[in-house]
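Narrative of activities, Objective 1.

The group set out to show that a structural description can be obtained from nothing but a protein's sequence at a throughput compatible with the screening campaign. Below is one input-output pair from the validation batch, recorded exactly as produced.
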Amino acid sequence: MEFGIYLFFKKSCNLNTEPVVLPIMSTINDQHYIDKVLQGDANAFAVLVDRYKDMIFTLAQKMIKNREEAEEVAQDTFIKAYNSLSKFKGDSKFSTWIYKVAYNTCLDRLKKNKKEDNNISIDEFSAHLIKTMDNALSALEDKERKQTIQNCLNLLPSKENFLLTLFYFEDQSLEEIGKVMNINANNVKVKLFRSRQKLAVILKKQLEPETIECYERK
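Output recorded for this entry:
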């Protein structure tokens, strides 16, 4: 996957086949490379592919739930982003823009496949449950906490999985998530709350009962 997307992208966009040496200065902002691409240096897009390939693949896998298809969606995302780069106006972060491209590409694939999402019942949800789960998660080591959340996110329906991945792992604001998913910030807030309810139900089933009991008393 790591190199596959880039090689596929180069072949699809007729870039040269010589290895591209990525700059060590990763602090140079995205706009610098966007400008270079728009000025005719197509290979500058390799830096943007390298920066976002892991997260784009992760988001695609969250939505599509199939590794091979997620790789294809990630490839399609970069090809679409490259071909539409002139449409990026800079009124949002480039990451927000390309995540929206990825989201729409995922939706197209899901429509094509007509896959049904899992339904998670929140009947057993209580107002105290989200706080309890947050407290229990905060007690875990960082790596274990992230892995626990990832495992539980994979059990959610595609759109909610995508939404919470942006929220937990990309620190996207409500406005940024709204731009990605084409909804307003208030709708994001509502969907985020309901998605966290469902995640809390799943987490309750995944965490050790003793851990939950401890934090229910707090």
